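Long-time lurker. I teach an intro course on protein structure, and each term I like to show students one example going from raw sequence to a predicted 3D structure in token notation. This year I'd like something fresh instead of my usual example. Would anyone be willing to generate the tokens for the chain below so I can use it in lecture? Attribution to the forum is fine with me.
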Amino acid sequence: MASDLLELTVDIVVAHASTSEMSPDELLNEIKMVYVTLKNIEHDDATKEIAETEMPEKTQNTAAGDAKPLAPVLSVEEAFKPDQVACMICGKSGMTTLKRHLMSAHNMKPGEYRKAYQIPKDQPLAATEYVAKRRQMALDRGLGENLAKARAARKAKTSEA
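-- Reply from a regular --
Happy to contribute to a lecture. Here you go:
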């Protein structure tokens, strides 16, 4: 069973590496990510089969998001770099933000992810350089001032009525 997972992992990583250039670290992360993902899929399928034979009424009412998260593939320090972020669940790296990846790949909201992996609230789920760039762009456009003006206008309008 483990050799099947290794063979599948090798096949998938070789196919991916043949189409895109990867550094040795990226290649190693890709191998880990694919192996862990395949192992999780295999574990979930086995769990579903056991649950369906033992307790069919509970499997129908259990939501997909109720499963306990597995141990993180990466530490918080490894996952959050200034120029990129990586997923602590599957190890996928090179992203600027995690929100879309969490919903599409893991059906998980950012708050659930923070809670599951004890990520501090002051830690953005995006690359710090990206956050700083977006913040500066908003300041340059005067979005904070415009928001304050709109709030003041709304407050004046509601106090007149």
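Some talking points for your students: The chain has two domains: 1-62, 70-161. The chain is about 65% helix and 0% strand.
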